[in-house]
Amino acid sequence: MNTQKIKRIIKQSRNSILPPQKLLPSEFAETHLVLPDGASAGQKIRLYSFQREMLDIIDDPQYRKVVYKTSAQIAKTTILNSALFYWMYTDSSNIGIAQATGNELKQWKAGKIDKTIEQVSVLNNLITDKNDKRYANNANQIQLRDGNFLYFMSLGSPNHLRGKTLKRIILDEVSAVDLNDPEGNPIRLAEQRITDFGAEGKVLISSTPTFSGDAIDIEFQNSDQRHFHVNCPHCQYEHELLFENIQFDWEQIGNRKLPDPKTAVLHCPDCHESITEAQRIRMVSKGRWVKHRPEITDTAGFYINRLYSPNSTIQDIISEFRLAWYEYNNQSFYNTVLGLHYSELQQDFEIIKLENLRDDSFDIGNIPDEVLAICIGSDQQQDRLESTVLGFNDKELFVLGHKIFYGINCEVKGDKSYDQLLAFVRSDFRTVSGRKVKVLKAFVDSGNGRATNTVHAFCQRDPVLEPIKGSGSRTIPMFQQSTSKGQTFFNLNVHELKTWIRSLVINAVSENPDDAPLKVLFSHDLPDDYFEQLISEELKRKGDGYSWNLKKGQKRNEALDCLGYVLACMKYSLSKLGGQPFKELRTYASKQELKTINTTETNTPTPATPLKQQTQSRRNSTGRSWFG
């Protein structure tokens, strides 16, 4: 009788006595986990074919480090979360989870991790009650019933990794890491944390790339570099899905040519046959990971982009490329869609090539007839005001000059430099044929707190003057009217402006500068160090993004700032002229030409001050119009 009772008790409790069924990480994810949010929230996870090896490798003791370099919207977070939950369920330990910033960490924890734990009973049973004060649960940690912890940390504070014994660590969006942080490189600190666990220790490193040389670039270069290969349905040629294998037409929209998504088709790089969406999805489902550096045996690295996603079509991808092309924002497309670094903005310039951009055919006293209007951008310094003069049409920007107005103390009202600048702004600017060119606006920097009131008072002297202030935000519009302490001014997105300037300079020194939709041309008499100042800054990671910062050893960047101000001034001025600003400017220019002709017919033809003669003919631009 007792034997039967024992058998019955054992049978009823066998699920609690027996160890959990051994599952691969991918099998565990599809068996137990659900999607935490979105339109499919609560539904079982179904991994893409390329995700299985990316997840299953966390159980391979050969690899202590796994690197994921991916585009956005490729379900990277699903892999990281699945790895975390698999470890919690099968082999509990202290686990560290780190994100680029505190805000992103909170969103990840609350929106993905906490929600999944609440919906999945096998995970919820592992967690202590957050309302029970006997346990240490808060925004920075979760205590498991077996005494282990999940620690949540910000990559922006590497010291969070110190003093913690961690068997596994997950680092996401490491491209935001400052590799030279005085507190230490968080990736190296993470690797040190798992040293005591030998082969059982594991670090997962993930990020969408930004620029060459960022953290994910370094980690992937030092991995076995796995790429996902597929077979052509026509010739069976094994290859990667790359952007250059998409063919599409360009359509004329106004004065610009833009990619036409409706014509986009993926082609095999070998037989050149077209590949349909259905064929692409089948190819991906049968693809395989190939190591490009098999000699690396302790670090696995995976690269994948949006072309493999069943949730995106080739036409969707070209639609995003069209938008990036229209907004001159290749950076975002390369990073988030192709999962590639964008190095163009980081390239070094040969100063000789930049100096060769000086054009002897024009300057402030010798303004080309192609110029329709002028804007001015001014920077305030302690003892001087610096101003860049920009003439422009819809295809060309003419940096006509960079003037410096010296004073005694430009932070106080009444300094002579302001009188000099005002007189210059009110100058009679004329083209080589004598046509008058109007100054639309002049932006004056008021960002120096000690000079703010001085600049605002100065700008009240003429309606053409506008006070401005550079903003550190990368998300505001290029120019945005703001009010502070009763003073109205324009906030400028200096990051966007400096990125635009760098793109213009890159086009100017390229092999085919005339192909650019907008050309920038530089006067011969700009200051000697003008181009050194123009490239005085470089992109560096900062927090959850990147920003322009002075290069080491560089002290001056006023020329760069002034060009940014005057470009914003031009964009603002054009925005006030309606839907066809250049039509309005050409109409105005035609009227000025008639006045010039009439004046010439009724007055002595010899001017009091002869116009400066052109010393060199200038090539006509054949580039497409910048404005659509």
From TrEMBL:
Domain Phage terminase large subunit GpA ATPase: 47-289
Sequence ranges of Low complexity compositional bias: 597-610
Occurrences of domain Terminase large subunit GpA endonuclease (ranges): 299-570
Residue spans of biased composition, Polar residues class: 611-628
Molecular function GO labels: ATP hydrolysis activity; endonuclease activity
Matching InterPro entries: GpA_ATPase (IPR046453), GpA_endonuclease (IPR046454), P-loop_NTPase (IPR027417)
One Pfam family linked to the record: GpA_ATPase
Region spans: Disordered: 597-628
Protein name: Terminase
